[in-house]
Amino acid sequence: MVLRKIILHFLLCFPCTVIFGQTSLIDSLEHELTICRQDDAKTDLLTSLSFEYRDIDPPKCKEYAEQALELSQKIDDKRREAAAYNALGVYYYYADMPYPAYVNYKKAEKLFLEYGTWNDPKEIYYNLTHLYIFIRDKENAEYYADKLLDIAIKEGDPAGEVDARFTVGAARFSEISGKEALEYYSDLYEKALPLNNTTTYVVSLFCGETHIQMKQYKEGLKYLHRARRYFEKHKEPGFTMEAYIRLADAYTAMHRVDSAEYWLWKVSKSPTVYESVKIRMLYDRSVLDSINGDYWGALSNFKDYHRITDSLAKAGNTSEMARMRNRFEIEQKETENRMLLHEQEAQQRLICFLTGALCLILVLILLLAYYYWRSVKKNSELKELHGIKDKLFSLVAHDLRGPIGTLMTMLKLVNQGGLDTATQNELLKGISNRVDDTYGLLDNLLCWSKTQMQSIVPSPAHFDLQLASMVTVRSLQGIALEKRITLSNRIESRKVYADKDIFTVVVRNLTMNALKYTFEGGKVTLASKPAGDMLIISVQDNGTGMTRDVQNKLFKLAETKSKRGTNNESGTGLGLVLCADFVKMNGGSIWFESEESKGTTFFFTIPCRPKE
């Protein structure tokens, strides 16, 4: 527990190590406190002093924090009260009492969120992140680390963003090893490099450590020496010592005895050597003694190493630590439950008071919405019916008048004897094609009008899919031959359960459409494939395809505007609307895929057996 905490504090740039020259700062603050007469300024001084005494004199740290809290409450300054709660949390954190630290941090967070500015809780989030890292609550640690990152991004502070991302990494990676951690810290180092500050080279330490643990010694040493040179130049003894011990660890792992001994000697000359560093020195010395053949020295150092680490592990597993953590979790849940219960009671009273009024308002809203919906729906239906009516009149006026007018003209010429036999035959052939189109239109109009009057009742029965489709395909081979289109029927022989006549109408319309919009020499293919209790029928062509606008209006009779075929054949769009209705009558669904200039494929399903 102690080892983990020291490393966390030390490497996360959290100001926990003894700051050299700190005494003069404390003396200055205490002098200002004696001459200060303004309560708000006095509160700030007490909070600052509490923070400075956190690792020098814990009782004074607590005393100053409590005085700051009392004074801030007296002057009713919520932001300063929050800062005092934060200082108390810092005291409990350093006293290895995570739950009281958590309680005070959360009180500070609540006050800052309620009375402060949007970035006031930044220090609280930082403290909570480290508290959750310490008790190994990764989820909450990442949550508060992400909040720090959000604030840094919102402030547009590159240095703050790098610090926040470093904290996110500390929350995310419980151990400084592994490919994912290396990629994260290497990327962060590149981002931090332009800042060239302490955080940059703390990240460099992490990168070096990770490389060493992955046995990438050359790269690891580069990162460690960069950090060491920076900390030596800027006279940061704590971080310099950490760089030394990491270099000693690295050279020990590489079995480079002289270099490892040199850096261990450098560590021993540091002004302050922490307990965690002493443990690492014992381990390195035991390894180095073993390499040198001094097995008694290696055994002695190794025993001391295990004695201290076992005592730390035992301390970490003592009932006190377990009790702290259990109490932390249990009381956190109890507090949350009490708050939730209190809120629920208040909400229930409010709900009881407003229920009657809300019900009445809801009934009125529903009534108004219902009548409005009926009115809108009725207007929409009328508008749609008017559109369909106009569409049908246009179809009848245009697509029926043309071939009938041509036939009348020809009959007059024949009666007058003004046409020779060859010309008559050529005209009859053209008129025959126009009459076929007109007949198809009339047939579709008749079927569609019957569906609108609900006079078509499906009569499902078992029939062979291949035989039924074959009859339709044969009847259309003449049109296909005339346009030199290859019409293929690959529908498999399989029993289905549906209305055969409805199926035939759907296949005929889809195939006619495919032939209409396929160029001479093209290809139209009918196929089928099973899909559970259904069969999927497809009609594919490699013709003109459809634009996105046409696709969006395809099954809407009032909106669709059919274009001419590749041989100037007329189109109405009614056939596809009819297909959609008929497929649904047969218990299936219809859809399509199309790409302009590359062709279209229509799909529809048909059941293989009766539905239960």
Tell me what you see in this structure.
The chain has 612 residues and is an alpha+beta fold. 71% of the residues lie in helices and 7% in strands. The protein is built from 22 helices and seven strands. It has helices at residues 2-11, 22-35, 39-52, 58-74, 78-94, 98-115, 122-134, 138-155, 158-172, 179-192, 198-213, 217-233, 237-253, 257-268, 275-292, 295-316, 319-416, 421-452, 465-482, 500-516, 548-552, 574-585; strands at residues 461-464, 486-490, 495-498, 523-531, 534-541, 590-595, 599-607. The strands form two sheets. It has a five-stranded mixed sheet with strand order 2-4-5-7-6. A two-stranded antiparallel ribbon has the order 1-3. A hairpin with a 2-residue loop joins strand 4 and strand 5 (534-541). The longest helix is centred in the middle third of the chain and has 98 residues, at 319-416. The two termini are 66 Å apart.
Q: Quick one: overall form?
A: elongated
Spans of at least 5 consecutive residues with low confidence: 1-21, 315-324
Q: Largest sheet at a glance?
A: 5 strands, mixed
Query: What string gives the helices and strands in order?
Result: HHHHHHHHHHHHHHHHHHEHEEHEEHHEE
How many DSSP helices?
A: 22
Distance N to C terminus: 66 Å
Write the layout of secondary structure elements.
Elements: H1 2-11, H2 22-35, H3 39-52, H4 58-74, H5 78-94, H6 98-115, H7 122-134, H8 138-155, H9 158-172, H10 179-192, H11 198-213, H12 217-233, H13 237-253, H14 257-268, H15 275-292, H16 295-316, H17 319-416, H18 421-452, E1 461-464, H19 465-482, E2 486-490, E3 495-498, H20 500-516, E4 523-531, E5 534-541, H21 548-552, H22 574-585, E6 590-595, E7 599-607
Parallel strand pairs: 2-4
Antiparallel strand pairs: 1-3, 4-5, 5-7, 6-7
